Amino acid sequence: MGKLHNPWPVIRGVVSDLDGVVYRGKTPIDDAVKAFQTWKAEGIPFCFVTNNSTHTAEDVVSKLVSFGIDVTLDNVVTSAVTAAQLIRQRFPEGTRVFVIGAPSLKQAIAAANLEITEREPSVVVMGLDREITHEKMRIAVDAILKGALLIGTNPDLLLPTPTGFEPGAGAILTAVATAARVKPIIVGKPEVYMIEAALKRIGTDRSSTLMIGDQIPTDIQAGKKAGLCSVLVTTGVPPVEDATLLPPDFTIATLKEIPGVR
């Protein structure tokens, strides 16, 4: 497919999504693995930003290392930890939080010295919960209607799997937000919280840093808002046609199309 218009920038840093870019489920995408191995060998810093709150940064590192990508915790920013940091910026230690999500999200909230409870929470935080129930949603809606702030780790409606797709965290977040008639605060992409954290870690200039993702509504919007050259790779979720969204700077079928990648 190649570029849409302008020439590729000189690439000095990379910020990248994970699901649908580096792997699908438990299956690595070989061209992507080779691309990050190339950048590592050439001393080009990179950081992964994931909307997925069901895995810890340690989980992500282990997975990437098993694929042959040399990374440490400094190379990974998760929506779960970012959500906890955002809550602590706005609320004091010990604030009551109702969590809908995986153990990794609860771990991040607890590690930020916040109290996880169903009783009169000041904050409801929602991530992907594959054990979602009507009762959990009822507690969330009731708390929000009584004044609790609603925070979502991400608005992803679909997630790629090895055999197809599954509903993302955004699916249940939309249901709760619609019922409670509120607009949630989104921590993950398309907002820039994680992108800014990644840029601080790799220390590269925005004009020479790529944002790579497989979703226009989240990855590409976040990259564009943060001022990065934004690259859509079509190995994940099918592209959404929406004229209201900022288009990617480049659309590629494989990371091999990026200059300098072997």
TrEMBL record:
User: Under the cellular component aspect of Gene Ontology, which terms does the record hold?
Assistant: cytoplasm
Query: Which GO terms of the molecular function aspect are on file?
Result: metal ion binding; phosphatase activity
Keywords attached to this Swiss-Prot or TrEMBL record, sorted alphabetically, are: Hydrolase, Magnesium, Metal-binding, Plasmid
This protein's source sits in the domain of life called Bacteria
Q: Does the keyword Hydrolase apply?
A: yes
Q: How is the cofactor bound?
A: Divalent metal ions. Mg(2+) is the most effective.
Pfam assignment, any one: Hydrolase_like
- Cofactors named for this entry: Mg(2+)
> In which residues is substrate bound?
189
Family label: Belongs to the HAD-like hydrolase superfamily.
PANTHER family, A to Z: 4-NITROPHENYLPHOSPHATASE-RELATED, HALOACID DEHALOGENASE-LIKE HYDROLASE DOMAIN-CONTAINING PROTEIN 2
> Known NCBIfam families for this protein?
HAD-SF-IIA
This protein is called HAD-IIA family hydrolase
Species this protein is from: Shinella sumterensis
